[in-house]
Write a structure and sequence with these properties.
single chain, about 140 residues, seven-stranded antiparallel β-sheet, about 30% helix
Length: about 140
């Protein structure tokens, strides 16, 4: 079931641009993914996966999010990250990866050009990241 918080975020995203959300994953698919890869995904990101197991926001050039059951599937060993403490869960149209901590809730953008995560591109959790997309991408709303 979609929480009120996530329902409001999705409504806000849909009002800002064209979105393409994939069918959500099941709890079983998420648990199997975590077990197979010996990781724990952030709680709010898991709630998102139940709603949309991947997809794109702000088409045609915005962000792509990865899932656990639909392609593109999260590659926990993706080398496009600052270090092994992060998992790449999506990408911006610029090519910069969206990463989450393996042992926490924080979601960030890894800035390739700077070779680091900028403090103004770090969010306390996945829902805060989603709420900040319009500012991050320079979209009015």
């Amino acid at each position: 079931m979609l929480s009120d918080e996530l329902r409001n975020i999705v409504s806000g995203l849909n009002s800002l641009g064209k979105m393409s959300f994939l069918t959500g994953a099941t709890n079983e698919q998420i648990e199997l993914f975590e077990k197979e890869h010996e990781i724990k995904l952030p709680l709010k990101f898991k709630e998102w996966l139940l709603f949309s197991d991947g997809g794109e926001c702000f088409l045609p050039a915005g962000i792509q999010l990865y899932g656990v059951a639909h392609k593109p599937v999260i590659d926990v060993n993706d080398s496009d990250r600052p270090n092994e403490n992060y998992i790449v869960i999506g990408t911006l149209s610029s090519g910069d990866p969206i990463v989450c901590e393996k042992a926490g809730e924080q979601v960030s953008i890894y800035n390739h050009e700077a070779g680091k995560i900028e403090s103004d591109e770090t969010y306390s959790d996945f829902f805060c990241f989603l709420n900040g997309l319009n500012e991050l991408l320079g979209i009015g709303g």
